């Protein structure tokens, strides 16, 4: 729920809350969605994410970043793992919390809004089982624009599956509005798929927006980290004059 009289949402973890965890491994960062099992202001008990059927390795003293979307705001905070047993772990919650506004605030108002994010979108005509894949360009309150290998006849009812990296797949339905050659690649098509009012007001659409925002923010964090690593690498322990 949004705060009364436009007040900003506050960071608070609670039971059954879905959150994103970002964990550092030797081969890089990985992200997982999981559930809060129990939480207080200073501590949280969290279900250990799985890869397949196996819980990922989380050990005492590990530092894990938690990302929570509350109303229209992203909160980022570090956790310090104190205990990990079986399918859950306990961690201390840092007092240093980063708050980031998102475009979701605009979705709740009568104004244009676009989420410009490229993620895989599987689609098929409801009357067939032939599955195809496109890549989204942007999503608005009324439609999704994507790049497809073949044009889709206008007025085709479609079953859609958003496969946002690092997130569970989310299904909904839409209707193709138009397809036209892509300017930068005439062999592909720019396709518009419209959502019905029923879809826009559904929990599935809210979930799509949520995962899109998580993915967009995750992509920004990774790019910022890459830039920092480049700067540190170029520095190579030297000062601005090139001297050590």
Give a structural overview.
With 244 residues, the protein is an alpha+beta fold. It folds into two domains: 9-101, Pnp Oxidase, Chain A; 103-227, predicted glycosyltransferase like domains (Thrombin, subunit H, Beta Barrel). Helix content is 17%, strand content 46%. The chain has three helices and 14 strands. The strands form three sheets. It has a six-stranded antiparallel beta barrel. Strands 9-10-11-14-13-12 form a six-stranded antiparallel barrel. It has a two-stranded antiparallel sheet with strand order 4-5. A hairpin with a 6-residue loop joins strand 9 (120-125) and strand 10 (132-139). The radius of gyration is 21 Å and the shape is elongated. Mean pLDDT is 88; it is low at 1-5 and 237-244.
């Amino acid at each position: 729920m949004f705060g009364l009289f436009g007040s900003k949402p506050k960071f608070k973890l609670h039971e059954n809350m879905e959150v994103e965890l970002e964990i550092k491994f030797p081969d890089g960062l990985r992200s997982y969605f999981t559930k809060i099992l129990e939480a207080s202001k200073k501590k949280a008990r969290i279900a250990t994410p799985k890869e397949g059927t196996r819980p990922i390795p989380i050990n005492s003293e590990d530092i894990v970043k938690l990302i929570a979307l509350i109303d229209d705001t992203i909160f980022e905070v570090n956790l310090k793992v104190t205990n990990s047993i079986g399918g859950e772990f306990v961690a201390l919650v840092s007092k240093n919390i980063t708050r980031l506004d998102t475009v979701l605030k605009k979705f709740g108002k009568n104004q244009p809004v676009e989420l410009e994010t490229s993620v895989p979108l599987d689609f098929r005509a409801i009357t067939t089982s032939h599955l195809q894949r496109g890549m989204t360009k942007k999503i608005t309150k009324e439609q999704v624009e994507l790049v497809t290998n073949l044009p889709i006849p206008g007025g085709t009812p479609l079953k859609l599956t958003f496969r946002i990296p690092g997130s569970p797949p989310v299904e909904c339905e839409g209707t193709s509005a138009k397809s036209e050659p892509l300017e930068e690649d005439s062999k592909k098509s720019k396709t518009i798929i419209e959502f019905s009012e029923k879809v826009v007001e559904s929990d599935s659409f809210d979930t799509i927006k949520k995962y899109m925002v998580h993915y967009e923010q995750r992509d920004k964090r990774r790019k910022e980290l890459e830039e920092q690593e480049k700067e540190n690498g170029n520095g190579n322990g030297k000062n601005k004059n090139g001297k050590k």
